Amino acid sequence: MTTSPLVSGFTPGGAYSPNGGYAPSVDAASLVSAAQELATSMLGEVGGRLPHSAGVAARAGQLAGAVAARERRLLVAAAWLHDIGYAPSAQVTGFHPLDGALFLAARGWPPRLCGLVAYHSGAGFAAAELGLADELSRFTHEESEVSDALTYADQTTGPDGRPVTLAERMAEMLARHGSSSTQARIQHERRPHLLAIAARVEQRLAATATGG
Q1: How far is the C-alpha of 212 from the C-alpha of 209, rounded, in Å?
Q2: pTM (2 decimals)?
Q3: CA 133, 125, 39: angle at the middle one, nearest 5?
Q4: Which is the most buried residue in 105, 108, 132, 201, by most CB within 10 A?
Q5: Are 38 and 84 contacting, i.e. CB atoms less than 8 angstroms apart?
Q6: Is residue 109 one of the residues assigned to a domain?
Q7: Phi and psi of 29, rounded to 5°?
């Protein structure tokens, strides 16, 4: 695989600093607070991205029963940061999951968190449509209880941060982006992917509620 000039110098699993500067790591204990602080500082004036991100983080907290206890901080932190690629200072390719993952990797955030941001909500389908699949593949495509819960939280939270159904969210997204958008062109693949994730998360929550 050839290295794109957009991401040259990036090594998955390690901190990358384009100018050779210090890229601090983020310790586990402060992961959620650091994620909230970064999202708040970078997304506060980017449309409605901060209310949505805050809503997704809150929703992720409600999904604690769908993931192992040791994974809950990672889930909520990824929820706060899943749209960080919309911040102007993070934009490189114009594709927010990739831009967000690159931005976070460059600053020493955990590789798993970067991968969750890179692939959230079926981003792989859009990356293929946009010709960015190779760039995205530099991050680990995790398919787990955590990735499912992150996507479910995102897809059941509206742009204003309020809870919505998956059907409402998909309909709003298509109306907002338009019938000729990338999102519309991949909907035939992305929709069943999201429905399958929703079914898994809801099954895990039901099992937790009944003690199963």
Answers
A1: 8
A2: 0.88
A3: 85
A4: 105
A5: yes
A6: yes
A7: -65, -30
Structure tokens at 186: 């991949």
- Distance separating the N- and C-terminal Cα atoms of the chain: 44
Tell me whether residue 8 is in a domain. Answer: no
Residues spanned by the domain of 92: 28-209
**How many Å apart are CA 185 and CA 191, to the nearest integer?**
11
Is position 127 within any domain?
Answer: yes
Which residues, in sequence order, are bridge partners of residue 157? 163
Number of domains in the chain: 1
Largest separation between any pair of C-alpha atoms in the chain: 53
What the block records as the tokens of 50 is: 């901060």
Each residue's pLDDT, cut to its tens digit, for the chain (212 residues) gives 233 334 333 333 333 333 322 345 567 779 999 999 999 999 998 988 999 999 999 999 999 999 999 999 999 999 999 999 999 999 999 999 999 999 999 999 999 999 999 999 999 999 999 999 999 999 999 999 999 999 999 999 999 999 999 999 999 999 999 999 999 999 999 999 999 999 999 999 999 988 76
Angle at CA 173, nearest 5°, toward 168 and 178? 130
Sole residue written with tokens 């695989």: 1
